[in-house]
Amino acid sequence: MLQVAFIRAHKEKVLQGLNVRNFKDAARQVEEIIRLDDQRKQLQQQNDELLARGKAMAKEIGLLMRAGKQEEAHERKAQTAELKARSKALTEQRKATEAELTQLLYNIPNIPHPKVPAGTTEADNIVAKEVGEIPALPEGAKPHWELIEEYDIIDFNLGVKITGAGFPVYKGKGAKLQRALINFFLDEAEKAGFTEVQPPIVINEDSGYGTGQLPDKEGQMYHVASENFYLIPTAEVPITNMYRDVILTEEQLPIKHVGYTPCFRREAGSWGSHVRGLNRLHQFDKVEIVQIQHPDKSYEALEEMSGYIQSLLQKLALPYRVLVLCGGDLGFTSALTYDMEVYSAAQQKWLEVSSVSNFENFQANRLKLRYKTADKKTQLLHTLNGSALALPRIVAAILENNQTPDGIKVPGVLVPYCGFRMID
RNA sequence: AGAGGAGUGGCAGAGUGGUCGAAUGCGGUGGUCUUGAAAACCAUUGUACCGUAAGGUACCGGGGGUUCGAAUCCCUCCUCCUCUGCCA
C-alpha cells in the first residue's frame, strides 16, 4: 500500500508510474484519495475538539461532585449529551471515510522503478541476460511427464487418488531428489548469509493482509474455514510477517532469511493443456529468500539476490535467462522484478523458476515494518524476496536436459545430497 | 477439550471508576563529578494521527458496550500459565 503522504508529494511520479502499468483511471483515483484524506483530517480535527471539550467537562464534573455541588454537576451532565452525540456522528463519518480511503489505496499498485519497461504482456519483458548452452537432445527426447512415468519417480495419478489434480506423489529417487534440492538450496543460502527459519505453513488473516494476499486475492489461497486460516502460497508470507508491527534499529539491518516450505496455490482458472506435468501444481516445494533492508540499500540487495539465484542455476548447470518484467507483467506489490527462467529442452520452453522483487516500502507500509533513524525518527523499511528456488520446474528441466539413453544424469552438486549419480 | 488464573510502557511491576499516558525499580540516552572508568547525582526516555507552532486526540492483549468520566465495570474474541483429559 502506498502512503498518502507519498502520493501527495509525488503526484506526477505516481501517475507516470501507474501509466507504465497501464493502470486505468489513475488521475481520478489519486484525486479521490487526496480528497478523502483531506476529509479524514478535517473530521478528526473537529472530533478532537469535541473530545477535548468533553474531557474538560468530565473533569469539572468530577471536581464539582467532590465539592458536593451535586446540582451544578447534573447541569453539566446534561450539556455533555449533545457533545457525545455529535462526537459519535463524527467518529462514524471518519471511520467511513477511512474505510473508503483504505479501499482505494488497496487498489493502487506499487510504483514501478524507472528501469521497468512499458508493456502490457509477458512478450514485452526485456531479456537482460542469457547464460549457458541449450543442450542438443538426441532424437526421441522425452518431455518430463513421460520421463517420470518411465522411471517411476513422480506419480500424478496417485496424487489424484489421495487429493486431486496437481498434488503429485514423489517416489523413490524422485522423492530423494526433492530432498536433495531442498537441502542444497538451504545450505547455499546459509553460506550466502541467509538465516534459516521454519515458519508455519498456515497463516491467519492479519498475515494475509500484511503481505498483500488479502484482500482480493483470497481466491488464490486454500482456506481453512474452521479456523479462518489460509495455506501459504509462498514462504514469503509467514517469513515477512515475522516482522509485522516491528521497529528495528539500523544496526539490525539487513535482515536476511531463508526458509523451505511447501506452497499451496489454487490456480483457479489458470489450468490448461500448456501446464502439463510439473509446469504448474497446486502443491509444490520452494526455498524462499527474504531480505529486509535500509531504503538506501534495497536495490543493491536486489542485485545481490539476483546474482545469488543465478549462482544456483549455474551450479546446477541449467541454461537460464533473466527477464526484467514490464509494467503490465509486474506484480501488484513490486517496484522491480527479475524473473529467472530455465530452458526445458524437451518441451523447448523457458520455465519461470524464480522471481526476485524489491517491494520498496509498499509491503512495509501495510506491515508497519519500520526502523529508527539516527535522529530517532521511525521510517518504513524496504522488503525484498525471491525464490531460491522453486522445485518442480527445476526438476522438469533437470530431467529433460540431462536425459541419456542410460538414464537421467543428476547434476554434480546434488550427488552428495541424494547419494546417486543416475536416475535409471 | 474441561476447570481455574492472568495479560499494563524495552523489561520487571504498582494502579480496581475521576486531575492516570499511567507510581516505582531496572535498562537506554544526555549531563555533572573524574586523568579515565565505575559508583553517585541530575535530566531525559512509547506509538500513531491532527496542527506551521503552541498544543490537541487516540492507544494499558484485540473488538464492542455501560458511564458526565474506564487501565479499572460488563460482553466477546485472542494469547499465556496451572491442573485434568487427549495426542504425534
What does this structure look like?
There is one protein chain. By secondary structure, the protein is of the alpha+beta class. The chain has 2 domains: about 5-105, Helix Hairpins; about 120-424, Bira Bifunctional Protein, Domain 2 (BirA Bifunctional Protein, domain 2), CATH 3.30.930. The chain has helices at about 5-10, 10-20, 25-65, 70-105, 145-150, 155-160, 175-190, 205-210, 235-240, 300-315, 360-365, 390-400, 415-420, and strands spanning about 125-130, 155, 170, 195, 200-205, 225, 230, 245-250, 255-265, 285-295, 320-325, 335-345, 350-360, 370, 380, 380-390, 405, 405-410, 420-424. α3 (about 25-65) runs antiparallel to α4 (about 70-105) and α5 packs across α12 (about 390-400). The chain starts with a helix and ends with a strand. It binds one RNA strand of 88 nucleotides through α3 and α4.
The number of domains = 2
According to CATH, what is the topology of the largest domain? BirA Bifunctional Protein, domain 2
Largest sheet: 8 strands, mixed
Give the helix level as a range of percent: 40-55%
Kindly provide the radius of gyration, computed on alpha-carbon positions and rounded to a whole number of angstroms. 27 Å
Average per-residue pLDDT, rounded, comes to: 92
Could you tell me how far the N terminus lies from the C terminus, measured between alpha carbons in angstroms?
Answer: 51 Å
- Low-confidence spans: none
* Count of strand segments: 19
Q: Strand arrangement, largest sheet?
A: 1-11-12-13-16-10-9-4
User: By helix and strand content, what is the structural category?
Assistant: alpha+beta
Helix run count: 13
